[in-house]
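For the sake of transparency, this paper describes our internal protein records without simplification. The record that follows is passed on verbatim for readers who wish to inspect the format:
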Amino acid sequence: MATLLVNQRCETGSLPTEIRLSIFYQLRRISCKHSFSPPGYHGFVEKDDQDVKNEIKELTKRISELEGMLAALLKPLTDARKTTERYLKLAGLLLDHGGLTPEVILPDLKDPISKDIVRVLLERPEQNISQITDLVKSRRGSASRRIIRTKLLDLEDQHIIQKQQQGSRAIYTLTPEVIKKWTQLLGLTI
C-alpha cells in the first residue's frame, strides 16, 4: 500500500528523483518492518495498520508541502528563463535585421515612406496627420502633408493602421493585429 502511494506520487514528477527515491525507500522500509518482519525479530517495533496509514498520511502531507515550496522556489527561475529567451530573441533580431524594423513584422510593406509612418506609430502611438508628417520629416529630411495623407489612406486600406476620431481631429494608430504581431515577435504577451 505504501509503495502504491509513493508510485502514484512519483508519477506526477513534481519532486526531484533523489527526493522521490528517498521517500520511496523510507516508505518501503516502514512497510517491510510492518508486513515482513520474521517472527520473534525484535529489532523493530511492530506497528499496526493504523500507525502505518497515519505515517503514510503524514509523509504524503510533507510531500505536498515540499512540492509547494519547490514550486515557489522554481517560479523566479522560470520567470528569469522567459526573460532570457525574450532577450536572446531580441538580440537575434537586432543581428539579423540591423534593428527592430517594420520589415520584420510587415514584409509586404515596400514603400519607404509607409515604413517610416509605421515606425513613427510604433514609437509614438496616437498621432494626428500633422504630428506624423513632422516626425517623418525629421527622419527623412522632407515629407509633405499631402503624401503622408495618401500613404495613411493606403495603410488604412491594408489594415495596418486605423483612424479614430477624437473630437474634430483624426488620430492614427496601428491596428490591434499589427500590435499583436509586434508583441509576439518581441516575446511579450498582451
User: Anything to note?
Assistant: The chain has eight helices and two strands.
